């Protein structure tokens, strides 16, 4: 019963992140801290807190590299720090199973925005300079959770 309540609050926070990120292109620290706190509760309930800490680090590593070195190479901010913190929180919610899960997460995270931008350009003849990346990260998280449950 406690897990259901925790997942309910996770869903509410993820919905809040999507709405605020799409409207204002910002991810609030309180949302990330809430997700980390709920992930900690799940870690204590399931007895796998160490796996969750490892998972948070492994999921975040590629995004830290993109944030740090991508900005230097392109002379433009590639990804916001709020997105990096969101990936850390989502990684903490997920348990580390295999590197294949991380690859799936990365592929979905980077391919779905390209599909979105391509579709928007084809149908609306409009290309955005900046997009909200949080909803795509959350979509990746949801698909990994569904994959784990199957």
Jot down its keywords.
81% helix, globular, mainly alpha, 150 residues, single chain
Description:
One of its GO terms (molecular function) is aspartic-type endopeptidase activity. One of its GO terms (cellular component) is membrane. The chain crosses the membrane at residues 6-22, 31-47, 53-71, 92-119, 131-146. The chain is an all-alpha fold and 150 residues long. It has one domain. The protein has 6 helices and no strands. The protein has helices at 2-24, 29-46, 49-74, 81-93, 99-124, 134-149. Helix 2 packs antiparallel against helix 3 (49-74) and helix 5 (99-124) packs across helix 6.
List the helices and strands and how they pair.
Layout: H1 2-24, H2 29-46, H3 49-74, H4 81-93, H5 99-124, H6 134-149
Helix pairs in contact: 1-2, 2-3, 2-4, 3-4, 4-6, 5-6
Transmembrane segments: 6-22, 31-47, 53-71, 92-119, 131-146
Domain Prepilin type IV endopeptidase peptidase: 9-116
Protein name: Prepilin type IV endopeptidase peptidase domain-containing protein
Offer a quick outline of the entry.
Residues 9-116 form the Prepilin type IV endopeptidase peptidase domain. With 150 residues, this protein is mainly α.
Helix count equals 6
Strand content: under 5%
- Assign the structural class, choosing from mainly alpha, mainly beta, alpha/beta, alpha+beta, or little secondary structure: mainly alpha
- Count the beta strands: 0
Oligomer: single chain
Mean pLDDT: 91
């Amino acid at each position: 019963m406690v897990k259901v309540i925790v997942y309910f609050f996770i869903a509410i926070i993820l919905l809040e992140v999507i709405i605020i990120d799409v409207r204002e292109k910002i991810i609030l620290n309180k949302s990330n801290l809430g997700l980390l706190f709920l992930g900690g509760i799940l870690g204590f309930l399931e007895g796998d807190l160490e796996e969750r800490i490892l998972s948070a680090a492994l999921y975040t590593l590629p995004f830290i590299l993109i944030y740090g070195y991508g900005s230097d190479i392109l002379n433009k901010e590639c990804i916001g720090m709020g997105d990096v913190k969101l990936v850390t929180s989502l990684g903490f919610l997920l348990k580390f199973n295999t590197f294949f899960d991380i690859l799936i997460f990365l592929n979905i995270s980077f391919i779905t925005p390209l599909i979105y931008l391509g579709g928007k350009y084809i149908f609306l003849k409009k290309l955005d300079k900046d997009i909200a990346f949080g909803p795509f990260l959350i979509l990746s998280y949801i698909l990994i959770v569904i994959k784990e449950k199957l």
